[in-house]
Write a structure and sequence with these properties.
By secondary structure, this protein is an alpha/beta fold. A seven-stranded parallel β-sheet has the order 3-2-1-4-5-6-7, covered by helices on one side. Strands 10-9-8-11-12-13 form a six-stranded parallel β-sheet, sandwiched between helices. Helix 1 packs across helix 13 and helix 11 crosses helix 12.
Amino acid sequence: MMSEIQVACRVDSSPHIGEGHFRRCLLLANQCATKGVHFEFFCRELTPNNSRQLEQSSFRLTWLPETTSRQQDADALLHILRQRKSVPNLLLVDSYLLDGKWEEIFHNLIPSVVVLDDLADRPHHCTTLIDPSPLRVKTDYLHLVPPGTRLLLGADYTLLQNNFAAYHQVFRDGRQEKKQNLIHLFFGATDPANHTFVYAKLLLENLADVTVKVAAGPDYPFAETLAALHLEYEKRLQYTIGVDDMAAHMAECQLAIGAPGTATWERICLGIPQLLLATNDNQINILQRLHNAKFCHYLGKADSCSPHSILEVTNRLLTDENQRRKLLINCPKIDGKGASRVVHALLEDCRSS
């Protein structure tokens, strides 16, 4: 029966790795719960915001000890699971730090191992692999997974909060106009380098007609810098610390500037052209591919990009509708319903194992 299905999820978050991995797992957990599935998180590190989210939810959180290797991480989780009266039907893994050697350890204990990935840069040993990157093709994983692994790839599996589907339909139907010269700015929930302030200040100082709308997470440590900037620019700077509804927050914006991640697909879903900057070296390859496919305009690394280049491209896009359209016309269709498709796949894995 559905109520007997148990899912164990291995995921972490931190200021360095961000909250994206955790947020998409929590999204799946919430949707699984509506199907009567028991979902448990196994974490070594979480941001305070993510810890609070789990404390306020119905999901169980089991902390793993600090470890110095993948093998120790796997051994710690294996020890905990072997103490239980019943083992999970499925192990969901979402971490760039773990790979096929880690995953293989659990195959004799847990019937299904499902991996969430979007880098395609290391081997995996799993029954199903889900990569929601719109440019991803099966040959990218040809030599990275065992024969017979089910691959669920592309925009159909993009994991966005439920309300993005509704806003996507509003955008598709032409029921909402974008506000002229309104720029959405988001560099991740915590943004430890405070690119948020640097780029908000750059835009406000040099583009007199723009309004900047900033999103940041509850644990963003530089809120006072935005407060000071707001005193100077008043209505031209709108900022929210701890955005509850990202779809509503960004939907009316004419242009978006920020870091990649889930926000990349959120912007595409809502039809917002985007200028992206890399905040981590592991983002550069995917950003170059997105730029070449004309899904976005990749500007370079956030800590070294030329201010002149950013201002020139931003101004050109704000004043030229054809340029904005070029950054949308080749984008994949992201309808905001990917999470329900992934949950369906997880339940199929449980039933077939």
